[in-house]
Amino acid sequence: MREQRMQNMRRAIVCCILFLLLLTTPLGEDKISLDVTKTYTPSQGLIPIEREWAANIVVVGYDQALIDETILLAGLPTTRFYSSELVGITYNIDYNVVYADSSYINDLRQVMLDNSINGSDTGTRLDETALLYQKSHLDEPQRIFYPRSGREIDAYAVEDWLEENPYTAKPNLGYTFYLVNFSEFDSQDHSFEHWYNYHPVDPDTGEDQDWFRLEWDNALNPNVTMDYPFFGGRYNSFVVDPSAHQWYLKWCRIWWSESIVTEYDFWTEDLEDKMSTLNMGVPADVDALNVYLSESIWDPINLLLFPYQHQPASYVASGTLKGLVICMDVAEGTSVESLEWVTDAGMQKAHLEELYPFIDWTVDIEFLDIDEESAWNTLFWMDAYVEPDGTTVVDGYAMFGTIYDAMKSLYTVDDGNINVFGVVFIKKQMEMHAYGRTYTGLGGGGQTVIWKSWDRYYRPDEVTPKDGISSVQLHETMHAVGFHHSWQHEHYSSDFSWGPMGYFAFHNGTSTFDKNWVQGTYLDQMEALLLNEFLVEQADLGASERPETYLAEQQALAVFAKATAFYEEMDWQAAFDALSEASDWMKRMVLSRVDDTPPVIHTYGTNPDEVGTAPFFYSAIVTDDYAGIENVTLYAQVDQGDIHAFPSSNHRGNWSVFVPALGHTTNLTMWLVVHDWGMNSFTGGHVEVFVIPPFSFADLLIPLTIAAGVACSMIGIGVYLMKRKR
Description:
5-stranded mixed β-sheet, 5 domains, alpha/beta, globular, 17 helices, about 25% strand, 26 strands
């Protein structure tokens, strides 16, 4: 009975507080329905959090009667479970298949036609025979890329149109996936095909990417075009067109063959090829078509939209990237200054802040001459040698480990936050070998190392900058913070995306899929941890707490609800801000139980002491014995009229604020309002100033005018009287 009475008393107090809140809530704010009597249980073990995601699949240009949704959706994830050190994250995924009507198809077709280039030598074809030979003879470079004819469609224009004209309403938390068929653009003999240009550009030079990987980044393979059959990542959408031309999947099938057990038809057969082998009057062939389409959409959905290969974002407070660019040919005439264009700390920081905006990033890039760095010079040549033809060959795996063991700790600290150490070696005629092949860089364990030969930075004239290292550095840094590639063996078509984690092409920045992953999983952990902590503290509340404590409790619940609503709209920054606010209310709830004493203002004053119309500083020494000061605000009232608020900043207990010129005034009244984290406040520090404005001619203008007017009047009257006497 006693416990029931306590609960009733507590609910009565809560109701009173909620009533007061309603009286003070501005009209127009979103209403939040809260069940204040509901019982929550803090979690044991991994703290669970669950989200409901959705994906619309819009089918464009297919006969609806031929689509078997059961087969089409087979193998797509309906749930994902991810775990961090403390939180278990569950994503439930719902799919909604819709079919575009003829009007929408016609409009989309026209957009493609209006934004395309049609002609010869507009694309690239792969010589598979030459590639097979080169793979067996790695020391014999081959020409494997040749120009081809066809229609190049601007993917940006198509993507922008789809974003502005979605066939069905976009899900609040999720993606829109377009499965399209434009076989009508192609000839049956493949002499004329269509594909999409997704505009890969090197971020350091602004050069359109027309090269592919280091083995073919040479004069034998000029002007390689990046022909996309699929694309997405600038918005929350993705387009798959199995009827489009591509060469990358054919390259993957050969180059990674040792790691491939299952080959998929869409790698080498476009939709027309597949349809030519099927009879749509035979049910088994209809099933085969649906399997083909299902396999075509599997990679981007499983590796981009709802990835299984990444780790949840590190739930930390800060990130640091310390980079060294080591120039190795200074003695031969290649100065350090001539290479400072290859990356930029500001660009690196901008990319990381775009990806991971909830933490503070510090980025520092140094350019060094290896001849002036004896430790680095010794380290490099421990795992490198020069072949007779002058090529420097690096054992990348060994050198990466040596740097990690011997050098990383000299440049970064291990404090539980994200600390990435990156090293770039630039030397003419250099190759890095690892795992039996040549690579450009390696990353992992908070470290990245890039070995990129000097000649690959420039166009063939060895003067025009072509390709810096910012995109590669971002790729390796994302490895270091938990990202895997956008591809996995046997699943390569997800590389057709706008992001840095693939092997096909690079873009300036990170994709929406990357950002959604990092920011979403960061917020999953933040909400789960904060809410669990709140529930623990809430369970300890009694029936006779201070009203301020119950107010803080209800405010925290309200803001948690707002955070969830923002998350479900994929408004990550608003969700983060709401969770930060919930954390503040939880802190007030806890400290208001143990601290009911207001803070104290000890001394206060202005600088200069005499305040006039010029700007000045106001400062005060303020303390609080237990909860700590939350904020100090100076209020200034001008001539008993407008009141201005100036938040103060703290420096070792001295709270100060700069007050700008407040205009012409004769009376200025100032006071401080101090709040502590225990929800106690104190008002004091009053200063009232009567301002005597400086003398100016303008101040005399009115009385002089009046006096002159009076004088003129008196003269006039005198003249009049004198005339009357005459």
